[in-house]
Predict the 3D structure of the following.
Amino acid sequence: MSTEGSDGHRGLGSTITRHVGQAWGAGMNERFGDRAKWAAHVPFALVLLVAAIGFLRVAMHAWREGSMLLSLALLLAAAARAFLTKDQVGLIAVRSRPVDLILYGGFGLVLMAVAVTIVGGPLAF
């Protein structure tokens, strides 16, 4: 008894792999070209850049400036999630849009409040 299908592939595993490969191959690149592939990563890269600069400032003992930059990165992620489609935001879209907005925006505002209200440090008023 042979497990070979009518298309010459053997077993269920190869059939699933073939169908998944076809689904991935006929995706965004064929419809929109390479520009769309890179454009989907721009918002995420921008958020990562701001967050990396924030972590760098915290490591340089400018924790208040770093915290403000980290909160800015979260608020930037919330804004991107609010105004761009799921395909345009790329990896920023983790959960549903309302949950992402509440979490990114809420954590961004809380972190900004903490950075502004703690007394002392390099930005003492």
In short: The helical segments are 11-25, 28-32, 34-39, 42-59, 63-83, 86-89, 97-117. Residues 19-26 have pLDDT under 50 and may be disordered. The two ends are 82 Å apart (CA to CA). The CA atoms of residues 78 and 100 lie 7 Å apart.
